[in-house]
Structures are given as C-alpha cells and as structure tokens.
Amino acid sequence: MANSRGVLLYGPPAAGKDTITEQLLTIGPYTHFQRLKVGSGRTSGYRMGTSEQLTALRERGQVIYENQRYDATYVIDREELDTIVRKHERVPVLHVGQVDAVHAVCSSYPLTWTIVMVFCPRGEAEKRLIGRNDARIVERLAVWDDTLAEADPTLFDLVLNTAAFEPAHAAGLIDWCQRHRR
Fold first, then answer.
1. Around 71, how many Cα atoms within 13 Å sit in the side-chain half-sphere?
2. CA distance 1 to 132
3. Looking at the keywords, is Transferase present (predicted)?
4. Counting CB atoms within 10 angstroms of each CB, which of 2, 10, 20, 150 has the fewest?
5. The architecture CATH gives domain 5-179
6. Whole-angstrom Cα Rg for the chain
C-alpha cells in the first residue's frame, strides 16, 4: 500500500473538525473521508445513502463502525477507505465523536493513525452552532457533553483547543504530527 497513514479527528459537535479538515486539504495529500449517512438532516460532508446500500455493506462485511444519532445512521466503511488509500493514494481524514469508533477504525483498518482530539469551550460551541443556524442546538450540546466526558486523554497523539488556534495553525500541527509518527 503506497499510503500507510491516516488521521482521526475526534471531537464534539462544533469543535472545528470540518474547518481543520479544509485546511489540511490545502497542505498535504489529505482527503476528507465522508461517512455514509442514511437518514435525514444535514447532507454536507456525507455520502448520502439508502437502507439497501447499508444492508449490502453489512452483508459484505464492509462496515467498520456505525452509529445512530440525530435520526440517522452514520457509517465508516472499508470500501470508501480503500478507495481513498489504495486507489487515490491519499491520507484519509475521518471525523468521529465516539471512543468506540476510534478503537474500531484503528483495530480494523491497518494504517498508522494519528489520533487528534479537537474541542473548544462549550460556550464557543454554542456560539458556533447558533452562527450556522443549527436547528438541533440543545441536542448537539448534549452530544458535546457526552463526547468530552467519554474522551480518554491517553488515546490521543495531539489535543487541540480550537478556540486557541487558528485553523491553519491547528492543521499545521496535525500535519507535522502525522508526518512524524512512527
């Protein structure tokens, strides 16, 4: 495999995962892994799919991790990771909000993963959610609480408070960490 690395961005809603990923795409061979989403709600940043597609992935043993939230199912699948890593020889950047997802990806997909926790103060997350006219602010803040409560600091190679770093600086730190991982 030409590329043997990946980046996992772990963090709560409105922590800055999308913004940091946009910056990573400008500085290296990174590609945002878009999870398959089956359900309603936001479509940006996802590969929208059907229940039939999800069933087929499950039957072929291609689902690495899936979770349900906000009336939808979100899936990390081997086929899309293979396309990014093997076909396009890019470094996948995955967004997750569950420690179980980190463990599932790291144990099921053999890359050298740089695991980064991104967060911001809760009040800043609320301002960001209001700023993007999010219809589920209360629900997302509850998920914000759960995500930070679940975090195990020993799991991460890097921890970034996105309220303290400009997105380009945060991306630069992640890129440096990713390139120097052994």
1. 7
2. 39
3. yes
4. 2
5. 3-Layer(aba) Sandwich (3.40)
6. 16
pLDDT at position 138 is 85
- pLDDT at position 137 is 83
Contact 74, 105 (CB under 8 A): no
| Cβ-proximal residues to 28 (8 Å cutoff; 6+ apart), any chain | 91, 175, 178, 179
Q: What is the pTM of this model?
A: 0.91
Q: Give the number of other Cβ atoms within 10 Å of residue 121's Cβ.
A: 12
In single-letter form, the type of residue at position 169 comes to H
Euclidean distance between CA atoms 122 and 47, whole angstroms:
28
Check residue 111 and give its pLDDT: 92
Whole-angstrom CA distances from 167 to 77, 118, 140, 163, 164 are 27, 11, 22, 9, 9
Q: Where are the beta strands (DSSP E) in 26-90?
A: 30-32, 36-39, 47-48, 63-69, 72-77
